[in-house]
Structures are given as C-alpha cells and as structure tokens.
C-alpha cells in the first residue's frame, strides 16, 4: 500500500484548457493554435502523473517534430503550467527545458538584417511610395492591396480592416503612416489597378521588391515580441510554416 507521502506526490494534470484560453486575450487563430498544443499535452498526461520524469518523456516524444514545432509546444506547455500553478490547480510549478537548437549550415546561412527605410517616410510623392508604406506598415501583398477600399481605413480610431477568405483582420495604424497618407483622395483608383501596374509603380519608387519589404514587416514584428501565432494572424496566414525560419 502506498505511503501518505507517495500519494501526495501523485498529481494528475487537470484539464483547464478552456479556462486558460478564456483568460488570455488571444486572437481566434492564436487561440486555435494554443488549443491544439494543449490538447496534445493533455492527451499525453491522460494516464500519467505530472512528474519531472514524465515531462522528460513528453519532451522526448516531441523530438520527432521539427525544432521550431518542439519549441512552440514546450512554450505553450510552460505557460499553461504557470497558469495552473498561479491559480492553485497544481501545487508545484513545472517547467520543461527548451530545446537547444544545433546550428547547421542551413540555419546559419539565413540571417536577414532589419532595415528602417527612412526614405519611405518623406512627404508622399507618388503611388509607389504609398504602396511601399502599405507593405512595410501592414505586411500586405499585392493581392490584398487590390482588395482594399479607402473605407477600410478608420482614421478616427487608427485601424485598418482587411477581410480574406471570410476572416477579418484588424491592424493598428501608426501615426507616422496616418499623417502621410490620410489626405489621399483617389486611393480606390490605385487599389483597382492590375498587379503589373502596382509592381511597376513600386519599382519606380524603390529597388526593393514587395517580397523584400514584406519580409521587413515580419522582422520588425518578431523584434517587437510577437509570437509566431500572433504574427501569422496579423498576416492572415492559415499555417505558421513559412514563418518558422524567423523564430530559429
């Protein structure tokens, strides 16, 4: 028969996933990603007690995933354990050690530099400059720009609304962007132009491609502390696969 001390150390993982998610101000996409990470964790501990040894087994099980996926699931689990401990759902704080990424030739070869583009923020002089600002400030691609309407910009409350595949995104408008473009009167004419026209106008203003400028938006968001899920939501992405290289 187990001793009283042994019984006290047997701790099952309570299922408080919904309560945890409700307590966080997650977007719908971010909430969904955290939900699946935590369901994965909960399923592993369904027939196990929460011990440091069991956490190591869980970490070992994750080893079949990519390093980026391992780090995400471990981060999700650690935040969840902290929530459980702070809310007295478990009587001991557990933390899984993060995966240490081994440097490889491929991971060392991709280190894009953050640029500031001060020339983009001079007095507005041409359509290409406006396009460059839309890409740099909001991470938009040409297809998204073509679907914009001037009415999507709320200058009073400083946000831009974008709808893509039935999903609405609300992106903050920075003042440095607003003061340069909100006086435009014919933006809808530009949004209605062809992709080739937009490409040509951007090329007239800068040698940077739309892809390179959009990557700068991504780099600035990563630097600002956005999680990979939050960034995917800002960009309207359905998966995080293309963003993983920025979080290595």
TrEMBL record:
It comes from the Bacteria. One of its GO terms (biological process) is DNA transposition. Putative tyrosine recombinase. Not involved in the cutting and rejoining of the recombining DNA molecules on dif(SL) site. It comes from Lactococcus lactis subsp. cremoris (Streptococcus cremoris). Coiled coil: none annotated. Keywords: Cytoplasm, DNA integration, DNA recombination, DNA-binding. It is found in: Cytoplasm. Residues 100-248 form the Tyr recombinase domain. Residues 11-85 form the Core-binding (CB) domain. The active site is at 246 (o-(3'-phospho-dna)-tyrosine intermediate). GO terms for molecular function: DNA binding; tyrosine-based site-specific recombinase activity. InterPro entries: CB, DNA_brk_join_enz, Integrase-like_cat_sf, Integrase_catalytic, Integrase_recombinase_N, Tyrosine_recombinase_XerD-like. This is Tyrosine recombinase XerD-like. The keyword Cytoplasm applies. Belongs to the 'phage' integrase family. XerD-like subfamily. Its main location: cytoplasm. One of its GO terms (cellular component) is cytoplasm. The keyword Transmembrane does not apply.
């Amino acid at each position: 028969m187990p001793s009283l001390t042994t019984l006290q150390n047997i701790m099952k993982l309570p299922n408080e996933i919904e309560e945890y998610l409700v307590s966080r101000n997650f977007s719908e996409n971010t909430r969904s990603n955290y939900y699946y990470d935590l369901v994965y964790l909960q399923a592993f501990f369904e027939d196990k007690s929460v011990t440091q040894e069991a956490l190591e087994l869980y970490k070992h099980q994750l080893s079949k995933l990519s390093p980026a996926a391992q780090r995400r699931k471990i981060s999700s689990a650690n935040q969840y354990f902290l929530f459980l401990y702070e809310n007295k759902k478990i009587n001991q704080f557990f933390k899984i050690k993060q995966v240490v990424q081994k440097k490889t030739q491929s991971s060392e070869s991709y280190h894009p530099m953050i640029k500031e583009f001060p020339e983009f923020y001079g007095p507005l002089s041409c359509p290409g400059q406006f396009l460059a600002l839309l890409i740099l400030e909001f991470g938009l691609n040409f297809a998204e720009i073509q679907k914009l309407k001037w009415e999507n910009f709320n200058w009073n409350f400083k946000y831009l609304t974008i709808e893509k595949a039935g999903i609405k995104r609300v992106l903050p408008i920075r003042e440095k962007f607003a003061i340069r473009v909100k006086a435009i009167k014919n933006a809808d004419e530009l949004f209605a132009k062809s992709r080739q026209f937009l490409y040509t106008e951007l090329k007239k203003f800068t040698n940077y491609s739309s892809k390179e400028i959009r990557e700068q938006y991504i780099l600035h968001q990563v630097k600002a502390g956005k999680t990979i899920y939050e960034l995917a939501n800002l960009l309207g992405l359905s998966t995080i696969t293309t963003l993983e290289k920025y979080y290595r």
